[in-house]
Amino acid sequence: MIEIVLGVDDLASVRFAISPLQETCHSLWALRDPGDFPLHLRWLRLIRPRLADLDRELLMALVSERRWLPDFITPRPLSRMPEMEEELQTVRNADPATVRRDVQTAYRDQRMPEVLRGDPAALHDRIADVLEAYWRTALEPYWPRMRGVLESDILYRAQLLADGGAAALFAGLHPNVQWDSGILRLHPMGTHSRVRAGSGLTLCPTLFGRKATAPIGEVPRVDYPARGVATLWGAVTAAPADSIAALIGRPKAAILAALDTPDSTASLARTLGATPSAVSQHLTVLAACGLLTRARAGRTVLYARSELGDRLAAHDGTAARDR
Fold first, then answer.
1. Contacts 24+ apart (CB under 8 A), 109-115
2. Total domain count for the chain?
3. Cα dihedral 148, 153, 159, 165 sign
4. Cα 35 to chain center, whole Å?
5. Quick count: other Cβ atoms within 10 Å of Cβ 85?
6. Are residues 38 and 117 part of one domain?
7. What is the pLDDT of residues 175-210, one digit of tens each?
8. Same domain, 29 and 120
């Protein structure tokens, strides 16, 4: 169990961050044990043929048998949404002693693969190179949609914080998180430590997490499973029912049906097979009619059905079933 002691100043400095490098590294869990990540099987089928030219031996060696990752490859994000290039540079700049320590910690009580036994001064560059190649191949093409789900989760958590304070925020992260009398407990974690935050707390949603975790030796940061992962790889294939399509037009009806969870213009365009400009025009009209709400998350605007939009979509779904 890990216990993070949070003072008043820490609670006042709680922030969220989205890390493309973290998602890249966490996705290796699904690549290693696909049966434990059924929601990502469609993505895995799409990317596997593209990985033939990568250094698979080094890539998979980054995940130990207990699924620990060396901490230096998932550094704490220094901004709300860092660029992948910035985070990879942090990996390249890692101190060789830190590289060796983190690799040894990840493989504690296990045999370390030979591919990780090289000079740590060169190892971090090789690791950064293979992670960059993997990112470009497997995640970057889908990043707008992935980022949209992560941003939607942050909006949801921010609303919890606004409505119920820190207690409501922490209570909803994951069942393995417990908040009591100023202490945030994560269990079980395979180790036991108690630390004082002292500099705020960073919360990072992840699409590949199965429980909330705190990177070993690098608190205060908590990675927790994001909401809405089940919607990530599902394409909208069913045509909207005739009644709503006749009322607002088939393209707008398709957008309304697709917004079961908040999403961005670019992600919707990819899902629906339409141009971003066309989707943007339809979103503007739907929002002006009160069927959608919108909120800005960093550089992205997320759209969600309003109460009226939910009622219209639900009514149309009922009518379609009745037929």
1. 110/64, 110/65, 110/66, 113/57, 113/61, 115/57, 115/58, 115/61
2. 3
3. negative
4. 19
5. 10
6. yes
7. 999 998 888 988 865 566 766 666 788 999 999 998
8. yes
Determine the pLDDT at residue 321. 39
Q: Give the pLDDT confidence score for residue 316 in this predicted structure.
A: 52
154: which 2 tokens?
A: 């942050």
Query: Tokens 């969600």 label which residue?
Result: 304
Alpha helices by DSSP H, listed for the chain, are: 8-12, 20-32, 41-47, 56-61, 84-92, 96-106, 120-134, 143-171, 242-248, 250-258, 265-272, 276-288, 307-322
Look up the domain containing 259 and give its range: 235-322
Residues of the chain with pLDDT under 70: 188-192, 194-198, 216-219, 234-242, 298, 315-323
**Both 249 and 263 in a single domain?**
yes
Distance CA 77, CA 260 (A): 29
Strand order in the sheet with 177-180: 177-180, 183-186, 2-5, 193-196
Residues 205 and 251 in one domain: no
pLDDT at 219: 53
Q: Which amino acid is at 117?
A: R
Per-residue model confidence (pLDDT) at position 279 = 94
| 132 and 56 co-located in one domain | yes
The identity of residue 234, as a single letter, is G
Helix (H) or strand (E) holding 294: strand 292-297
